[in-house]
Amino acid sequence: MNLYQQQLEDELAELKTSGMFKQEQIIEGRQGARITIDGKSLLNFCGNNYLGLAGSQQLVDAAKTAVQDYGYGMASVRFICGTSSIHKSLERTTADFFGFEDAILYSSCFDANTGLFETLLSEGDAIFSDELNHASIIDGVRLCKAERFRYRHSDMGDLEVQLKAAGPRRRMMIATDGVFSMDGEVAKLAEICALGEKYGAFVMVDDSHGSGVLGETGRGSIQDQGVLGKVAILTSTYGKALGGACGGFTAARTDIVEYLRQRSRPYLFSNSLPPAIAAVSQWVLQRFDSDLRSRRDTLQSNTIYFREHLLKLGFELGGDGRHPITPVMLYDEGEAVSMAQALMSECVYVRGFTYPVVPKGKARIRVQLSAAHSREDLDSALAAFTKLKQV
How would residue 313 be classed by pLDDT, with cut points 50, 70 and 90? Predict the structure, then answer.
């Protein structure tokens, strides 16, 4: 065994000892409210399949049609010969759906974020980022040469202090998640936009967990918080509520999008989004208002019902109750891990989250509701929580 192999094996062993090793569970068959793992049927409360579309036959049929129409892939990047008519159509549909002038597609929202900041910001500019932003924002910010200011989570006073400290700059951007995924907490976008306007900073929101979920018509946290038309840049994904496969986008003014097409490295040097996925994503957006919005209503009803019953059982919950991410706060890391394992034995699949995924002393089980969950599914999961609460 060489030195590097020994080092890696030692580091992997340390991850396991510290409880930080991530063990993948292999799903047999489709994603859905129920999944099969190791031949065992489990209620799935551990996915971002908020509208229950990922395993739906409707999307399977739409994908079959798309493969027949567009083939398997483009085998190229966009600017060479990898742009299909369905890519342009989805960009137009996405921009219109979320109320922006234009949109640009990426393989994922992670790529959209890592390709954003270094393209638009340079040395001497300033970027202000919430300390609990998603890893893709953190990594994207690391790639750019702008001066970095990290403000305390959702602390508008601290954000204003940081904006004042930055002083005049060529460009200033405030970057935030629309929904923070560990708590289901919605960002204070109205206050952020007001501060941005006051200090000349434009606002970027990653709404991967909000798109299709929040807002009166499912336009996300930017609608929920009343800032449609005030946010300069929106990034999000088709891989959660809006279908559940993959693909991301950046929506903004036409000049911003065009500049990204010219300079954004993940866009320029990655294969095009598979046409079938683009076509199914468009299928979802085009039918959202007429056929799919009722799923959002079901999701909201499921979230309210489940949270109310967990609270009656005496569990402490994070978030404000409007998002289907429902953190069951246990604080003790060992308890979070053991309860997640016990729930698995009761055929309820959830994950315990401990440090460093969440801060020390903030361990929790994150339950994620879906429109695909029936009331019977919810009651079965609540029965499991009840049993464990009584132990």
Answer: very high
Identify the active-site residue in 89, 181, 338, 380. 181
Q: What is the pLDDT of residues 192-222, one digit of tens each?
A: 999 999 999 999 999 999 999 999 999 999 9
Based on the residue annotation, tell me whether 22 is a catalytic residue of this protein.
Answer: no
Distances (CA, A) of 382 to 107, 195, 268, 386: 37, 42, 48, 6
Residue among 325, 297, 357 at smallest CA distance from 240: 325
Do 106 and 119 contact (CB within 8 A), yes or no?
no
> Which residue of the set 240, 323, 362, 373 is catalytic?
240
CB 238 within 8 A of CB 248: yes
Rounded distance, CA 181 to CA 232, Å? 22
Q: Is 345 exposed, middle or buried (0-12, 13-18, 19+ CB in 10 A)?
A: exposed
Annotated catalytic residue 240: yes
DSSP 330: E
For tokens 């097409």, the residue is 261
E strand map for the chain: 34-37, 40-44, 102-106, 126-130, 147-151, 172-177, 179-180, 185-186, 202-206, 233-237, 248-252, 316-317, 325-331, 348-349, 351-353, 363-368
**DSSP assignment, residue 46?**
S
Residue 145 among the catalytic residues: no
**Per-residue model confidence (pLDDT) at position 354:** 86
> Which of these is catalytic: 87, 134, 209, 362?
209
CA distances from 249 to 1, 238, 266, 288 (A): 44, 8, 12, 18
- Give the three-state DSSP class for 104: strand
Strands laid side by side in the 202-206 sheet: 102-106, 248-252, 233-237, 202-206, 172-177, 126-130, 147-151
